[in-house]
């Protein structure tokens, strides 16, 4: 359960980074934050689908 929360928080911070880098016209920041958002967002979704929330034993 804690893993989903951590992945979700990282994905939210990455979303904030994407929006901030677009506003500042920072291409490298956009690419890195976008990649982080994609990876951790995918991990969050797959962890919820696989393990459920709260975690099913």
How is this structure best described in words?
The protein is mainly α and 57 residues long. It has one domain. 82% of the residues lie in helices and 0% in strands. The chain has two helices and no strands. The protein has helices at residues 2-23, 27-51. The longest helix is centred in the last third of the chain and has 25 residues, at 27-51. The model has no long low-confidence stretch (mean pLDDT 89). One of its GO terms (cellular component) is plasma membrane. Keywords: Cell membrane, Membrane, Transmembrane, Transmembrane helix. Pfam families: DUF2759 (PF10958). The chain crosses the membrane at residues 2-22, 29-49.
* Percentage of residues in DSSP E strands: under 5%
Run of helices and strands: HH
The class by helix and strand makeup works out as mainly alpha
The overall strand count is 0
CA-based shape: elongated
Low-confidence stretches: none
The total of helices stands at: 2
The biggest beta sheet reads: none
Compute the separation of the termini in Å: 11 Å
What is the average per-residue confidence, as pLDDT, rounded to a whole number?
89
Number of domains: 1
Please estimate the helix content. Answer: over 70%
Radius of gyration: 13 Å
């Amino acid at each position: 359960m804690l893993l989903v929360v951590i992945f979700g928080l990282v994905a939210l911070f990455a979303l904030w980074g994407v929006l901030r880098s677009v506003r500042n016209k920072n291409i490298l920041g956009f690419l890195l934050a976008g990649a982080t958002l994609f990876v951790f967002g995918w991990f969050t979704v797959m962890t919820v689908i696989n393990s459920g929330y709260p975690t099913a034993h």
